[in-house]
Amino acid sequence: MSDRTMGERAAGQGLSFLGRVPGVAFVLVALFAIFATLSPGFTTVPNLSNILVQSSILLLLALPMTLIIMTEGLDLSIGAVLTLASVVLATVALSTGSLSIAVLAAVAVGSAMGLLNGWIIAWPGIPPFVATLGTLSIAQGLCLLLTDGQSVVGLPDELHTVYAGYLLGLPIPIIIGAVAYALMHLLLYHTRLGTYVPALGGNREALRHAGVNDRLVLTVIYGIGGLMAGIAALLLTSRMSSAHPTAGIGMEFDAIAAVAVGGTQFERGEGWLLGTLLGVITIGVLRNGLNLLGMPSSIQVVCVGLLVILALFLDGMRRVEE
Amino acid sequence: MVTLTPSAPTESPVHQAAGGAPLLELRGISKTFPGVRALDDVSFPIWAGEIHMLCGENGAGKSSLMKVLCGAYVADAGEMFHNGGKIEIKSTLDARKLGIAVIFQEFSLIPYLSVAQNIFLGREFPGRIPGTIDRQKIRSEAARFLAMIGSDIDVDTPVHKLGVAQQQMVEIAKALSQNARVLVMDEPTSALSDTETEHLFGMMRRLKANGVAIVYISHRMAEVFLLGDRITILRDGKKVDTVLPNETSVSDLVQKMVGRKVDTIHRRGDNMKAGELALEVKGLNAPSGIADINLNVRAGEIVGLCGLVGSGRTEVARAIFGADRISSGQVTFFGKPFSGGPDEATRLGVGLIPESRKAQGLALIRSVGDNIVLAALDRLFPSRLFQPRTARKAADDMIQKLRIATPSARRAAQFLSGGNQQKVVVGKWLTADARLFIFDEPTRGIDVGAKAEVFALMYDLVEKGAAILMISSELSEIVNVCDRAYVMREGRIAGELPRDRLAEENILQLGMHHE
Q1: Beta-carbon count within 10 A of B264 CB
Q2: ipTM for the whole complex
Q3: Got the DSSP string for B449-513?
Q4: Which of residues 418-447 of B touch A (CB under 8 A)?
Q5: Residue B509 to residue B493: CA distance in whole angstroms
Q6: Cα-flanking dihedrals φ and ψ of residue A82, to 5°?
Q7: Residue of B191, B196, B227 lying closest to B55 (CA atoms)
Q8: What gap in Å lies between CA A151 and CA A147, rounded to an integer?
Q9: Better-scored residue on pLDDT, B7 or B21
Q10: Looking at the domain that runs over B23-99+181-260, which CATH code has it been given?
Q11: pLDDT tens, B267-324?
């Protein structure tokens, strides 16, 4: 599918594109059919809307994670940065009483952490896995330091209306997710910066020879990850009406899983944004469906793991056929 | 190869008649690396509208010259002129500004970007919204440059879906879009089919007619004579001669490429002791690109396997050793059929001394002793328990036997000299009771003194009844060390040379493409 490179669907392909639909799409359809059969409440409009609302935070993390993985990188710190931004947001909101200042502070802290990641990886050349493992620990420690390990509560009521509110008849988290997706699509497929993302993963030497400052590009990509984590912090804090110093732990794994399930590869700069969207929704559908069936969250975690393996297995088989 | 139509006489170079300065001229270019004089006082004019062939053996300096041209290397000495004006090329950017584009055998394309995006990588046209790119213009401009070279590749195709020939077209279109006036091509036809080759040649003639200068490196004699307006021969980093195709012949060219070299290696005496069949390969085919390989090596023999870079020598060695998959054929070691896999080969008494000693032959950070016993663990410790004392003794024995210069068996292998590292690899296989040794480029990266030691070691091995298959691109080594040799060309055995016909000229005649 030409989406993978130009974000355009070549005309006149007919149904042959079906043969190139990634494994995740089949998994999503299958899960949907299973849950629709087993649980009558699954296919109701409120529940489907609920799935999208609940997926919004993960989507905000998985979108930049797609770009980062396409550069043959990884960001393990994104869950901890999300938590740190959430804690900062709550603390600033409490001390200033202004929600907008608090959001700005959260986004600033998230971006700063992201740029720090990018800088460490691009300039001294520390491998992304290790570099972001380090910043994960730093962010986690700062969370505990800022909160003394306690939850931050007593936030202004208007905060809760962000996650639970509606705009033009649509839940606000869905709107934020949709706007974020549209902007990331524009970035990846219609800007210079986006063009250089698959180049960083595919042939960094060639990019450098083309006169592009590859290190700066890499730093900015990680910075975008931190920025998105800052915005996701608004949704997270709003959902809980409070900030917990451990709230976002493990979110990086869901984000990486969504990207992998969506068919983005960890090598050579191959990846596509729509796949990540499908991956995020698939994980959301799986969790929601299991919830409706009364499965405990421990089973959900196991199932997400199985999903990742199944989706990649299906993709692998299709690749062999090619 | 298909019949190739020679270029029309009207297309012959006009530069000499027109007078004036060459488009680009190198004068007295030298480049030295530690221990190697890669280029030695090379002068080389390139005229607009000519196809200039560059010939020479492996290591003659062709690649170095190319890299100096494109700014990847900076010359130690010498001058360069562009249209008569003195210039300096200190970076790839300098070269690009002068209109010099090099198309390497390894392409510089991004696999998951489209053809159009690759052609304009780093030079995207800005779109109406600030920060965006004008994808329509990128596509239409890319299509225009592709059409210019007669290619109809869809500009939206991601590059990883293209074949080698099409990728080459994209590289050429990219070069033209950068307004290249000098195009350097390194063996561009080595991976092309006949039709693709025809197509490429047609395109080169069109570029030439438009005044583009092409420097073309090739080992295929037919191409050299068909396309070349002039032929420059390099040998040992020096320019031997520049000749016109109608004033020379294939044998003359080969003679100039080989020259009369001073033999640095002592030629071995005749060996009459060939014994049992150590290795027999029958009808071997492998997906790595080798076909119909038949060869054998007897105990007490050193048999050479040579051919140009990319002719399939290393692929043959890997297939024989079971390191690569084979599609058909039979490999027999000491009369026993080999079913595949390096562990099975080791059990049958085969040792591979790989081309890249540091990456494939040794565990560099481990001790000399650990390396020596590595392939013999099954034999030394039948109980499956590692016994340091046994290991130490085996290592010390081997260090003594091969006279490996190391303070102790505990020294990390990375601190040894190249020649001694090579001995450790050999010692590893001797400890594992190997009786057939496959040496892939045994003297790469080691100095002259160490070379002599490695050869002495090889002679000693065959004296004691081992068999050796030696792969080398150093023709003088093959000629002096081997009892006989197989010459490869394009993944096949082009011929076998017995001892009395083993000469560099004969190897080159067999290994080159001059049908």
Answers
A1: 11
A2: 0.84
A3: HHHHHHHHHHHHHHHTT-EEEEE-S-HHHHHHH-SEEEEEETTEEEEEE-GGG--HHHHHHHHSB
A4: none
A5: 13
A6: -55, -45
A7: B227
A8: 7
A9: B21
A10: 3.40.50.300
A11: 566 665 678 888 999 998 988 888 899 999 999 899 999 887 778 888 888 888 887 8
Three-state DSSP at A167 gives strand
Contact across the interface for B127 and A190, Cβ inside 8 Å: yes
Pair type for strands B77-82 and B85-87: antiparallel
Alpha carbons within 13 angstroms on the beta-carbon side of residue B488 total 27
- The helix/strand/coil state of B37 is strand
Q: Do B108 and A8 touch (CB under 8 A)?
A: no
CA–CA distance, B388 with B368 (Å, rounded to integer): 14
Question: Cα separation of B275 and B278, whole Å?
Answer: 8
- State the Cα–Cα distance between residues B515 and A105, nearest whole angstrom: 74
The continuous run of DSSP H or E covering B183 comes out as: strand B182-186
- With CA atoms as reference, report the closest residue to B419 among B469, B457, B463, B392: B457
B476 contacts B261 by C-beta, under 8 angstroms: yes
**Is A321 at the interface with chain B, CB within 8 A?**
no
Cross-chain Cβ contact B112/A270 below 8 Å: yes
Instruction: State pLDDT tens for residues B42-99.
Output: 998 999 999 999 988 766 788 888 888 888 888 889 999 998 889 988 887 888 888 9
What are B437's strand-pairing partners? Answer: B351, B468
A196 and A212 Cβ atoms separated by less than 8 Å: yes
Please give the backbone phi and psi of residue B17, each rounded to the nearest 5 degrees, phi first.
Answer: -65, -40
Is A162 buried (19+), middle (13-18) or exposed (0-12) by CB count in 10 A?
middle
Residue A215 in contact with partner chain B when CB distance is under 8 A? no
Q: Which of A253, A228, A236 is nearest to A83 (CA)?
A: A236
Q: For residue B23, what are the contacts with CB-CB under 8 A and spacing of at least 6?
A: B46, B47, B48, B82, B83, B181, B182, B213
Residues 6+ apart with CB under 8 A from A131: A117, A120, A121
Whole-angstrom distance, CA of residue B6 vs CA of residue A76: 61
Is B113's CB within 8 Å of A186's CB? Answer: no
Listed in sequence order, the residues at least 6 apart from A168 whose beta carbon sits closer than 8 Å to its beta carbon are: A175
Domain ranges within chain B, ordered by starting residue:
23-99+181-260, 109-179, 276-349+435-448+462-515, 358-434
B412: exposed, middle or buried (Cβ count in 10 Å: 0-12, 13-18, 19+): middle
- Pair A87, A145: CB distance under 8 Å: no
Angle at A246 between CA A243 and CA A250, to 5 degrees: 125
- Choose the CATH number for B276-349+435-448+462-515 among 3.30.70.120, 3.90.1150.10, 3.40.50.300, 1.20.140.10: 3.40.50.300
Residues B243-279: tens digit of each pLDDT: 998 888 887 887 788 775 444 455 566 665 678 888 9
Q: Are B175 and B103 in contact (CB under 8 A)?
A: yes
Indicate the residue of B108, B113, B127 with minimum beta-carbon distance to A198.
Answer: B113
The token duo for B481 is 């060390």
Strands (E), A34-140: none
Q: Which of B442, B443, B411, B415 is nearest to B429 (CA)?
A: B442
Residue ranges in chain A whose pLDDT is less than 70: 1-22, 318-322
Record the tokens describing residue A205, joined without a space: 């030497």
